[in-house]
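Narrative of activities, Objective 1.

The group set out to show that a structural description can be obtained from nothing but a protein's sequence at a throughput compatible with the screening campaign. Below is one input-output pair from the validation batch, recorded exactly as produced.
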Amino acid sequence: MSMTEQLNVQELHALFAAQLGNSTFPPPSSSRNASSHEGKGKGVRIPSKGPGRLCAASLSQSQVLQNLRTTDIIISSHPRSRNDPKMLDNSYVVCVITSQANEAIRALPNFPEPVKVLDPPAHEIRVHKDFGLGMFATRDLNVGDFIMAERPLFIMARGLGVDAKTLDHALDQMSDKRRDAFFALRNVKGYTRGPIQGIVDTNAIGMSGLPGHPQGAGVLCDEISRINHSCTPNSVWDWHLESFAMEIRALRPIKKGEQIFGSYNNTLDPRDERREFLLRRYKFHCVCPSCALPDDESRTSDARRAKLKLVEKKGPPSGFGYLRFPMWLNGPGSDNEVIDECLEAIELMEKEGVWPRNIWPPIFERLVIAYCCLEDAKNATYWARRASALYTAENSGDDGGWSAVAESPQELQEWWGARKHWR
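Output recorded for this entry:
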């Protein structure tokens, strides 16, 4: 393509992908949302091909339903059986999964990697007068910093229709210590569906994919399930398949002694809807900093979140800075036109203390590229570093290539000085 030719939206995104690579800047359609308690964490990263693995994208809804109807439900333990004397008590996870998922997990190469451990730990579990048990930082933490990881007590694949007898048998596979930890978790659901199901429904952290079972699973942890809720969370959880563990990282700076919060709901909903969901599902009235705002300030907060939700609903290419990018690149308008639109969206997220996974990555991508088009290395580096920290927090320590961009934004040769040269 000649630099003097007008770019359309599809060509622009094709250039994004060709120049930067999807591993560096994932296209907006691949962003993952973790807005509810059952949707926390992006889910495992499943290769599209490989022995013993299914790709969610390759299955139609009818195929998924047919697979579930013809699937064996099994109780297994991973990484290995509890009967293996080399396996520590806290190292195996009792799983109620499909036979396909079980085979796919066992087929993973070099499985499992060790679970990451900090010494001394960056967290502790203790009682708060208002929240009960919760997780607290034992040191100052920056965005992207690792807090802790643990193998779950229990994993149950979604959509299996498991009965109480099967759940009882599953928990019989746990050691006494881990079984006691499971039953120490809170149950706000009562005993209509049995005590085990009540604990699962109260404490499950969702992952959106599991090898061989793209419908996902609920994950219950001894410590991570103790993390309390905030509509402005300061941490984010992510399932790390390679170590078969849930990891927690800081989503914003956290001071020593500060409580570590996650989010159980869609943080972009209005306050009344967020509170109603939490009261109905988890039986508590949210008094987080966002929900505790005076009514007039809460309306302002709701309006900001509604703007972000509109960006989320429209999605690319209708989001901030995307449609205007080709015209801006070749046109006579202000150098700051696209930049100001991206900064407006970032300001909304900063004021609300939320970083939706399917909103911020494409906005940061376009912002960094815009600064590269203007040969502004200082600002390109600044925003690439911030993106690196956020991406690290949400992707088990993988920064998606953002640190390399921050180190040398001039290496994005397709874009460096493009506005000046293409005009």
